[in-house]
Specification:
The chain is mainly α. The chain has one domain. The chain contains five helices and no strands. The longest helix has 33 residues. The radius of gyration is 20 Å and the shape is elongated. About 3% of the residues have low confidence.
Amino acid sequence: MNQTHIHLLITHLPIFGSMLGGIVLAFGLWKKSDDTKIAAYLIFIISALGAGTAYLTGEAAEHTVHDIQGVLKETIETHEESAMYALISLIVLGLASIIGSFLTIKKSPMPRTIAFIILIIAIISFGLVARTGYLGGQIRHTELSNNLAAPNLEKETDD
């Protein structure tokens, strides 16, 4: 297993982690459960670590596909640029989750407010990382791209 394999495997963690963590956090807010909120924060922290790993292995993945016919440099660059924004948002989400966990454990008077702020960050992060994943999929999954003309699959018949 090389860095390209790791990149392709780990890229799904931040996408699903930010979504799942958001659902768990919303449930924890609804039920007023500190344990559930802490579980969501742990999911966000793991997602942030996954985003860091995906970003760090992205360069190797780029070198793997760079010379493959049909892979466009512009598509890779768009994905890479989007990945930076997604990484920053997930780092912010992970750090906010560490703070949220600490405040929740210490029974601070502000954990509900912090939880709502973290939920908003999670929603934004999910949007950014989902877009990044979509753009990454376009690198090798040309069926996702609107830029390419669909092949004509109809057979010509001789009449």
